Inverse folding.
């Protein structure tokens, strides 16, 4: 029987059923095109008791492991985001010891090291953790659970600040992970978590950010409940523009926390106003998702019928949720391009659209370029402005179909 991963309830209501899709980061080689390709149901449900929106944990991170690993430091804007966060947290809290969970290649802790503050990264991927150590960031190869948390505390002492960015959605054992955070943090310390916000996901139809690697999607209300399972109290929240709309949660051990501050109450009110405190508030989302699909397909079919060429820009994981859900194949989207050379010569999972280098767009001068990483809209409007030189237009599928002038 299906059970809520947070509270154990069996009352799970459907939010949106996106069909069955392959893991979104498994880009195929040419040889793999002739091999079977496993798919997994992608059906988002919400618990009608605790309101955690969730996918069943059908695949584990290690199942999708490829030689390609995501190194956070490749993204200059992400490193800069991390630097600003580290600076302001160090100024405000003056921690003596900082631990970051899922610390990747040290993109954040390198700034803590620079400031001469003692720190430790905890990173499950061995080769990514090695990159951090090479950069002078002490890093342990481990996956956080209550036992690892306690072992780290015993060896290094409690952390005054524990950071967990872009990982809280990726852990199937949300309760064990939260207890691990509590084990790490000092009794009067702070925990800071960044995670995508379900409110913006739903308001802006960002349904392509639903994929198998994200096991749960948080409102501030459900995050508050999740934190409580580990003995952590949510005290503050910041709204961030990253990933189309994220929240930064500030929590403290329940015994040290004064209770939720005014910003928590504000966001809880907004979520309530959007209907997310009631099961009925999730019901219209599926309709809006269906409209995104119809509008995009209509555009692509009309373009194909009238002899216009359409290619894609970007091959992000979320693009594959969109392409698979819409059933877009190379007859409607000849190819897409990506800056990551690992993906060149490979094919998008499920839809098998070729991924080529970005220079192909200027060579081919297509009529339309469908932008898959819509969250980079502002910078891509500028970066791809050359498309207008031959009268080409950029197309954004989300939040609703837009053909840029
Ligand atoms: Zn629940």
């Amino acid at each position: 029987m299906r059970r809520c991963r947070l509270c154990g309830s069996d009352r799970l209501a459907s939010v949106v059923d996106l069909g069955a899709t392959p893991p979104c980061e498994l880009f195929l080689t040419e040889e793999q095109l002739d091999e079977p390709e496993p798919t997994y149901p992608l059906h988002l449900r919400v618990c009608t008791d605790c309101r955690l929106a969730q996918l069943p944990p059908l695949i584990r991170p290690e199942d999708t492991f490829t030689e390609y690993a995501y190194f956070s430091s490749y993204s200059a804007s992400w490193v800069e985001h991390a630097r600003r966060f580290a600076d302001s947290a160090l100024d405000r809290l003056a921690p003596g010891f900082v631990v970051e969970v899922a610390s990747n290649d040290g993109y954040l802790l390198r700034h803590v090291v620079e400031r001469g503050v003692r720190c430790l990264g905890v990173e499950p991927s061995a080769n990514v953790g090695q990159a951090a150590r090479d950069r002078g960031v002490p890093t342990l190869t481990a996956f956080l659970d209550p036992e690892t948390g306690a072992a780290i505390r015993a060896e290094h002492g409690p952390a005054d600040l524990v950071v967990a960015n872009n990982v809280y959605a990726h852990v199937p054992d949300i309760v064990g992970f939260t207890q691990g955070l509590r084990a790490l943090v000092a009794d009067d310390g702070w925990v800071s978590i960044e995670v995508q916000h379900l409110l913006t996901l739903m308001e802006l139809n960002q349904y392509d950010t639903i994929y198998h690697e994200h096991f749960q999607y948080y409102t501030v209300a459900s995050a508050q409940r999740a934190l409580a399972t580990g003995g952590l109290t949510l005290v503050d929240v910041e709204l961030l523009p990253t990933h189309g709309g994220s929240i930064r949660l500030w929590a403290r051990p329940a015994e040290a926390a004064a209770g939720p501050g005014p910003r928590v109450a504000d966001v809880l009110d907004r979520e309530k106003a959007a209907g997310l405190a009631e099961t009925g508030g999730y019901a219209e989302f599926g309709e809006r998702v269906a409209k995104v699909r119809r509008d995009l397909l209509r555009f692509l079919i009309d373009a194909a019928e009238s002899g216009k060429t359409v290619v894609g820009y970007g091959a992000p994981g979320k693009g594959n949720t969109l392409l698979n859900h819409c059933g877009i194949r190379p007859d409607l989207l000849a190819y897409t391009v990506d800056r990551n050379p690992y993906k060149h010569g490979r094919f998008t999972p499920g839809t098998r659209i070729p991924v080529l280098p970005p220079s192909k767009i200027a060579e081919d001068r297509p009529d339309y370029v469908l932008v898959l990483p819509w969250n980079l809209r502002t910078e891509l409007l500028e970066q791809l402005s050359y498309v207008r030189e031959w009268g080409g237009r950029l197309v954004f599928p989300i939040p609703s179909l837009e053909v840029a002038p």
User: Anything to note?
Assistant: Residues 27 and 348 are 5 Å apart (CA to CA). The pocket of zinc ion is lined by residues 4, 6-7, 9, 47, 49-50, 52 (CB under 6 Å). The mean pLDDT is 94.
